[in-house]
């Protein structure tokens, strides 16, 4: 898999006995610890909340265990100058050879990525989600389990795609938008809006 210049890769950077700091302490953080254990059984994972951040040594390896895209981006931006964020790809993910991948992107078990896909920094593709040809996933965006992103879809930064959602081809999802679980998105979603339903409609505040 291709990577953005300068991105770290856990395979090369973690040594036996090293600690990896999982940022977050909820269920997703434990899932990230499990992913690291699959990739590197000799590494020690420490789940830490924000109050512990000042104690994390400079240059340490970090993995975002935060499921809310705004909080995920904030943590990444706070810490990226002094921590290393590896790209993690589960061995049971199927990733096209020409996928380009930003620092800290995470691809979990069962994910399928086809061809010419770009993954932004610190994004998360969760279990069994799919990403079709020429799609782009923005920085800090979270794609929840089972979501299907069709060919040519452009997903902005800090977007949440709910579990099982379907985004049809060439649709654009604006920065900070939320696509509800199970939604079928036929049209572009403006930045910051929440859409739900089949077909997806903007949810009024
Ligand atoms: C869309 C979403 C963000 C809305 O959350 P919220 O603002 O807290 O909304 P509420 O739960 O207060 O629901 C508000 C209304 O929207 C409806 N609604 C909420 N989510 C919906 C969805 N995914 N599809 C259809 N309707 C939905 C509710 O039934 C409720 O309708 P009502 O006003 O007629 O009673 C959230 O429901 C969602 O789908 N999040 C994705 C979660 C996910 O993927 N979880 C998996 C984690 S692994």
Main attributes of the structure:
single chain; 205 residues; alpha/beta; six-stranded parallel β-sheet; 3 helices; binds coenzyme A
Describe the structure in your own words.
A 9-stranded mixed β-sheet has the order 1-6-9-12-15-18-21-23-24. A 6-stranded parallel β-sheet has the order 7-10-13-16-19-22, with no helix packed on it. Strand 2 (19-23), helix 2 and strand 3 form a beta-alpha-beta unit. Mean pLDDT is 92; it is low at 1-12. It has 3 helices and 24 strands. By secondary structure, it is an alpha/beta fold. Bound molecules: coenzyme A.
Briefly characterize the structure.
This protein has three helices and 24 strands. The chain is of the alpha/beta class and 205 residues long. The chain has a domain at 18-79: Rossmann fold (3-Layer(aba) Sandwich).
Mean pLDDT: 92
Order of helices and strands: EHEHEEHEEEEEEEEEEEEEEEEEEEE
Structural class: alpha/beta
Largest sheet, strands/sense/barrel: 9 strands, mixed
Strand order of the largest sheet: 1-6-9-12-15-18-21-23-24
**Number of beta-strand segments:** 24
Computed Rg: 16 Å
Envelope shape: globular
Question: Are there runs of 5+ residues with pLDDT below 50, and where?
Answer: 1-12
- CATH second-level architecture of the domain at 18-79: 3-Layer(aba) Sandwich
Oligomer status? single chain
Distance between the termini: 41 Å
Ligands and ions found: coenzyme A
CATH class of the domain at 18-79: Alpha Beta
CATH topology of the domain at 18-79: Rossmann fold
The helix content, as a percent range, equals 10-25%
As a percent range, the share of strand residues is 25-35%
